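Q: A reviewer asked whether we had any structural model of the full assembly, not just the individual parts. We don't, so I'm hoping you can provide one. Inputs are below.
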Amino acid sequence: QKEVEQDPGPLSVPEGAIVSLNCTYSNSAFQYFMWYRQYSRKGPELLMYTYSSGNKEDGRFTAQVDKSSKYISLFIRDSQPSDSATYLCAMSAGNAGNMLTFGGGTRLMVKP
Amino acid sequence: ETGVTQTPRHLVMGMTNKKSLKCEQHLGHNAMYWYKQSAKKPLELMFVYSLEERVENNSVPSRFSPECPNSSHLFLHLHTLQPEDSALYLCASSRGRTGGETQYFGPGTRLLVL
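A: Here is a predicted structure for the entire assembly that you could use as a starting point for your response.
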């Protein structure tokens, strides 16, 4: 079993839709949770960062962490074609030298 | 584009060649990382350097040899690679190595081994 599971997609939605991206994990020691966005032929860029359980909102993006279920989500409201990218979840236990464990990424396509 | 730059952006090499990948960070960070990103696989951490000292080596074959001459530069020396080593090689940096420090990625070097 992979330590972090993420549906690879592709996920195709019409412009303006609400997008839900998810990851599940098995290591209960994870405390720091991140979402990275990676455009084609680019490196990953940090989108959202959350510590422990709870919600965090930044513009059209909302990150949720449910540590009891070992489940994290990223919601994108009013999705735009420019949101088309691969979204990677990443997490860290915080006591292992900032080692990140990544999901495999979900490819999102927002159609105009 | 970002505070982390990588050269070259694309590289094609034969199995008997020797080449080097270069990474430079302009963020004043103290930790640097090499990752491998293969198709349909999660990012794999290869090496971690903190204050120019290698602190992690994630069971990477010896045909990959990292070098960190100072806190701003990181190299990955390649020799006698295999076709399965073809991938996107990403460099990242962070302010430190305490838990939760954000890692900033470069654009990557896309490597093809023939």
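A: Points you may want to mention in the reply: Chain B touches chain A at residues 2, 4, 6, 31, 40-43, 45, 48, 50, 55-56, 90, 92, 94, 96-108, 110 (CB under 8 Å). The mean pLDDT of chain B is 91.
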